[in-house]
Amino acid sequence: MDSARAIVEELKIKVTQASLPKEVEEKLLNLLKFTGSGTELDGLVNYINFVISLPFGKYAQDILDLNRAEQILDKNHYGLQSVKDRILEYLSVLILHQQTRHINIFRAPIVAFIGLVGTGKTSLAYSIAESLGRPLTRIPFGGLGDPATLRGSSRVRPDAEPGQIIKAIQSAKVSNPVILLDEIDRVAEQHRVDIMGVLVELLDPAQNQTFLDHFLDFPYDLSQVLFIATANNTGNIATAVLDRLEPIMMPSYSDEEKLVIGKNYLLPKAMGEAGIGKDTLVVDEAAWPQILRPLGFDSGIRSLSRSLQAVCRKVARKKVEGEAGPFRITTENLGEYLAG
Q1: How many domains does the chain have?
Q2: Within this chain, do residues 82 and 196 fall inside the same structural domain, yes or no?
Q3: Which has the closest alpha carbon to 278: 270, 286, 290?
Q4: CATH number, residue 233
Q5: 26-30, 100-104, 294-298 — which one is most confidently predicted on average?
Q6: Is 179:108 a contact under the CB 8 Å cutoff?
Q7: Domain hosting residue 30, numbered range
Q8: E strands present in 214-265
Q9: By CB atoms within 10 Å of each CB, which of 207, 284, 297, 315 scores lowest?
Q10: What is the pLDDT of residues 71-113, one digit of tens each?
Q11: End-to-end Cα, the chain, rounded Å
């Protein structure tokens, strides 16, 4: 019992020193008045430590520099000029409202990148976050079932835990991160209606100021979060959610664009990941068409990236096994490097 009292007193000190909103501090202190010991106390310790770790009142300072944003987009993405223009227009609106101190009344539209797999949707979200200087956390919706995964579960349940949204805020360590809602069209069919209902609340500025996670059991202000969504298509997205999104359609890459991306972006990246130097591997021009289309037409660049990674892994193994290189990829030996 003395041990339990000591833990409670330690928690009280933590709570009072944590600079929490007054109503949250009072809630936690009231809980500590009536707590017992054992499992109940263990659950309360976990709950209070989680609440204290949330970034109440902490915000990332936005970088309001459109030229820098354009440079980041060009550095990270080849082509896609119409998409980049839309993003720069979007960032321009954000910047103007920030500069004129309208941040407390302006709510950014929710950008949604719509397109086939491998067309760059997710990486564009990371570039927007980099441009603004905000941390990004990603929530994958592929196969998402129970809406409690997003909203959290009540602490009366023995397996209770916070939802993915509040976990994303904790992970970002600021209350205005970029949160990527990835592949929102791919949620489990049997829970689609419930999950779309949570999305409507998340994306509605009239509601997300008081978003209620069932684990927290008090509202958390998400109004300064910059949400970005992705989807392969809009067919499985509820109309009420679509009404809150600003869709940007992703074009397919031509073979010419893929060739530039493969040579200048993906191959250097794959070589770096494999730990091989830039002079270690040479790809003949004649081999590129087979690398670009190993299985026929592909609108994105994901399979191209995987092919180049496979080649670089094979080269890495050859180096470790004692071959000196440099290694030249030709139409004759390409199959050896892509096999397996």
Answers
A1: 3
A2: yes
A3: 270
A4: 3.40.50.300
A5: 26-30
A6: no
A7: 2-52
A8: 218-220, 226-231, 245-249
A9: 297
A10: 999 999 888 899 999 899 988 888 887 776 544 445 667 899 9
A11: 61
